What does this fold into?
Amino acid sequence: MSFWQLFKHELMLVVSNRALMLTVVGGLCLYAFLYPRPYLAQSPREQSIVIINQDNSAISRRLERMVDASPLLEVDQSVASLEEAITQIRDGHVGGLLFIPKNFYRDLRLGSSPTLAFAGDASYFLIYGNVIEGLNLVSNDLAKQIKLQRLSSEGIPISPANDNIQAFSANNQAVFNSHQGYLDYVIPAVFLIILQQTLLIAVVLHSCSPLSRKSALSVDSSVKLVLVRTLIFTLLYVLMASFYQGFVLQHYDIHRWASAGQLLQLQLPYFLAIIGLSMCVASILNNGHNAMIIGLLTSLPIVFSSGFIWPIHSMPTMVNAIAELIPARSMVLANLKLNQQGASLSQITNHVQMLWLLAIGYLILGYLMTHWRKIRDQKLAASK
Amino acid sequence: MMSYSLILRSLFNDRWLYSLLSWLPLVVFLSIAAIFSSSFARENVIMVVDQDNSRLSRQLIRSYHASPNLSVTMSSNIQTAKDALVKGDIYAYVIIPNDLERDVKRFRSPLVQSYYNGQFLVIGKQVNAALAGIHTTINVGIDVGRVMGTGNTPALQAFGSVMPIRAQMSALFNSNNDYAQFILSGALPAAWQLIIVLSMVLIYSKFLKTESLENKRNISSILRISLVSGAMLVLQGLVMACLLFVYKGWPMRGDWSLIVFAQVLCVMASQAIALFLVFLLKDRTRALSFAAALTAPSFAFMGVTFPLDSMPTFSLLWRQLIPICHYVDIQISQSNHAPAIVHDADSLLKLAMFGLLFLAALCLVPQVQKQEVQA
It folds into this structure.
């Protein structure tokens, strides 16, 4: 069989493999819709908190109103006691509490720095973070107002910008995903991992199907077979990747910096590496459906170790050594930098090199193992 | 009817089932736990561009160094810092302006500007919080010194005028703000959910395929198979809970028996889904695909990382179909909040409702037989 005859034959096998098409087309479309659903709001809504006001002065009531006006918080209802408030948090009705101590106003006037107590449910990090951030902003605001009042009552002129009430001002600004959207944080990375896992399943499902095994036996050279399969799946996945990284990201309005051509320069080694790796897996498996078990059970460890959730330098060496061998690690980091942070390709050469290294290594290994499997299958067929 | 020993033997003869029911879950749980084994993201690299080179700027840099959350590199050039941020070599950079110290002395309130990477949300927020804390502390220090320097104001009063309000923050139910405790409470159950549905789809398909005896497919055989495999899966759940609450030692304030009960219900609910898919689709690979479609994104729908009250209605409905979401609701509320059982009755009831699906799946059994007879 010539290269193109084999190409046509294998392509027919891929397209007519219903389980494979269900995974690739059905699975990818479903996940493109399903996975971003929970995060559509981008940021958590206002967290409700309870306020225990034991002071009941004009200023503490002002503080209550300021909390309610905060874009991060809303006041649930005034609860009288701390115990009641804790119960409210326990039952999940509110995310946190603000405790204004007795004599808050008096201590403020005396200049003895009364202490406000903030508490948040740290079972949920995002809720806790927002409650604490919201309360901090409000109390800093109130502190500023008080300082200004004092300065003006002492007859000290206040500049219009109010900036002389602190020795220096500090401004921390988030860049890339500057609105801190959760969708922008999770989706670009997770999509790449979904592509990897489904491609692994697809290649293994194809290679292990009885028809493909038969086709593999009749092909004169394993090199040709590996090249044909690599070509088919690379084309298929560049298509699926343009759907994900183009249409779907645009649909969710996720900011992109890189051009399709730049992305292709990452996609190419990425898919080659995965295809090579999948051929290795396929040659030791007897049943294609086992690829689903591998693909699914490795998905969570791969997401968590890819480096976008937890910093790489905080992971144990052993974990890093394994994660580096998985194409998704380099791909996720390279893509976030290129597409989300506006890096140029020359700034991420380390990742690109790693991807090509994995691609070449896994393709050679994939070829060797496919060949080994073919010889084994031939012997088995002959012994029958 | 199949005997228990026959069921056990055929489960353990299958290499994949044996792995799924014995050592594989432990490997998955431990590898996820290993990723977060440091519990805190410390020593995040930042870059400081010190254009001032004064006593005050060096004090700032020393404070950055002293923070366990930060690790400091220096640069003389803003462009270098920008590039390093884009390349992901650092998580933030701080620009200490020219004449910082002089401007502070002249009450000009100069600006210390920092930029942090918002794409890496979790780490970015930590770095931001660390920087903000340091800046406030140093600011207060300078201001207190100023007020005391102007006259004979005692220290406490000086502090009061600089920092009129103090704040004390408490992280309830996770007092160390331990990231591993937070994320593993959802991640391990999510992995367990995958193991349960995958194993059960394989197991039911295997027994559906066993051709030798017609009566192997009868309902009591299915119940026996579910019982044997369910017991092993609940055991895995117990190992998972022990990993969290005994080995890691994170607090378990609630009722252990309720956790176990919820795990039993969760396994049964997942069995109902697996049985339904296997009998409905009559194809192992397709049943696996559908089971995967439902349960693979379960972590996203749990509401651990992103709060439930901010999810759209569709997501809230979809998560009702994923048993582990109800289990995690119970596990978090029991381990952290330890409410009365009434609070979790709702989630328990929802898990029990999957029993109806189990009945529906059993109704599909005779159809399979009829079709085969026709064939």
About this structure: The mean pLDDT of chain B is 89. Residues 144 and 156 of chain B are 9 Å apart (CA to CA). Chain B touches chain A through 118 residues (CB under 8 Å). Residues 4-37+178-374 of chain B form one domain.
